[in-house]
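Practice problem: predict the structure.
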Amino acid sequence: MDAAALKAMQAPVKDAYRDDAEKALITLRAHGSIDDQSIACKVETGRAIAVAGLHPATGGSGLELCSGDMLLEALVACAGVTLKAVATALEFKLGGATVEAEGDLDFRGTLGVAKDAPVGFRSIRLAFNLDTDEPQERIDTLLKLTERYCVVFQTINTKPELSVTASAA
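Answer:
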């Protein structure tokens, strides 16, 4: 897809959102069910069922997906799609790219071993390896816009309002 095709595809959507901001507000949903045989949660991904379980560092078998890995995978997926869309819109010469994310966890926090150990990632690093001969200033612009428009990156970066509820069936 080239820049003109991308702009043509997105133009009616952008116009609709400019005309009525309410149309841009959508709610995405995820659904899962607790596995009754093991410590796992079956998450419906839209394509298949992903079974998440305990990471081996918390006593898990390693046979199920780790939610922390899934968070990094979501970041890589979103950042990669965003990078490609931004590169296309900018007519940035990109032969290919790889995206990697890594994050540091202290599992003492999630296991309740040390109250001073944080629960969650201490740091996350996102890296792109670009096949391009574009000048550094264009690469910097690509990266800046990718950060700006990547939903997962911005969600992690700005911490949305969170709420938790529970109800008995």
